Amino acid sequence: MMKLLSLFDGSGGFCLAAIRAGIKPVAASEIEPFPIRVTTKRLPQVKHLGDVRKIDGGKIEPVDIVTFGSPCTNLSIAGKRAGLCGEQSSLFFDAIRVIKEMRSATAGKNPRFIIFENVCGVFSSDKGKDFQKILTEIVRVKEPTAPDVPLPEKGKWSTADVILGEGFSIAYRVFDAQFWGVPQRRRRVFLVADFAGKCAEKILFESNGLQRNFAESFGTGKNSAADFESGVGKSSLKLYENHSQDSRYTESGEISQTVSATFGMGGNNQPLVVNTFDIRLTSEGTKNSRNNIHATKISRCLDTGGNSPQANQGGVAVCGTLNARDYKGVGNQYVSEGKLQVDKNSVRRLTPTECARLQGFPDDWCSNLETENPSEEEIIFWRKIFSKKSDKQILRWLKNPHSDSAEYKMWGNGIALPCAEFILKKISDCVKK
Predict the structure, then answer these.
(1) Is the dihedral of CA 403, 48, 18, 171 positive or negative?
(2) Residue 170's closest CA among 218, 215, 138, 205?
(3) Are 358 and 410 in contact, with CB atoms under 8 Å apart?
(4) Dihedral (C-alpha) 75, 36, 172, 241: value to the nearest 10 degrees?
(5) Mean pLDDT of the chain
(6) Residue 288: pLDDT above 50?
(7) What share of the chain is helix, strand, coil (3-state, %, to 5)?
(8) Whole-angstrom Cα distance, residue 328 to residue 136?
(9) Over 60: is that where the pLDDT of 213 sits?
(10) C-alpha–C-alpha distance, residues 314 and 241, integer Å
(11) Given the DSSP bridges, would you call strands 65-68 and 47-48 parallel, antiparallel or unpaired?
(12) What is the dihedral of CA 200, 204, 209, 213, to 10 degrees?
């Protein structure tokens, strides 16, 4: 059985996908307490290594696959775009260092495969030079003296390509989660490197019929994407994108916008779900096309926030409140400057469980996280995570570690499980063949 190390582990998506693909996850790196609590409960067999900056790849258990969705904060088009020089996104280089150290300690044998995942903004960051650096660094894992990967003509990267070298291969491709079994519009770059063969292209581009439209697979599966409609309802609820800057509402029907890590914390562009029997478009909402309601079927992406409607940021909300200034909670109210009129009971935001479903995870992934009487070994473990908390504070947190905001953030920063599962199954098939 192949083994996997998940760096920047987040929601534990690569580890869970590995198990479903017949691969053994043995270790993970993460610094956020809530995601660590989730994976220690759901996947207790996975060893947590802590901060990636403190890992020596030559001193940990060798693995066949290393996955790393390194922080996208400085690469996203919604941020300040500090690029790979930014404090968070520069951690990409620590992941590469860990991979090189492991390969050095194993005479170039481990890992054979790596999977890199990030936002599509990586293509345009620093006028395309950041993705050039990423490709160059990955090539140099195998060929340390290789020249820089050339920039494409006009500096614009294609959304899919392959690099073939002497005995190795690299392929990348943009996946949109809505076509892989979950009702969420989530476009992400997935890159696979095979340092011992030419499998990368086959892994990403030969789907063998596994790629599917969400509508065809919506009714399949168990306790994940298939149950999304049980949360939002088929007949009377509709999902709306909310662009507060111009009071535009776009009906998205069955498919959610990109879910944001800041969704549960207020902010702009919070989508909403309303009961269709209670919805009225007021006369003020018919003055121009920007105020019209338009139908789609895909959710925006669960992501890390932002204010631009074009940035695919902002979270998902379904049929409660938008935020304090939009919803008064008394009688029929106008939402956002009187453009859309709804009944007070017909609007609410998406629940954390529905966010889990949009990412393709089981409903109970974040349930039963409490620990009433932790062992001394557990206390020692959590002291390292909470370096500034007392033992009393740690014990209190372990008794109730869950908060909606922490879960929203985890889902917004996480991966769509079906995409990762597809890639890992293809790696498994490649090795078997």
Answers:
(1) positive
(2) 138
(3) no
(4) -60
(5) 74
(6) no
(7) 35, 20, 45
(8) 53
(9) no
(10) 9
(11) unpaired
(12) 170
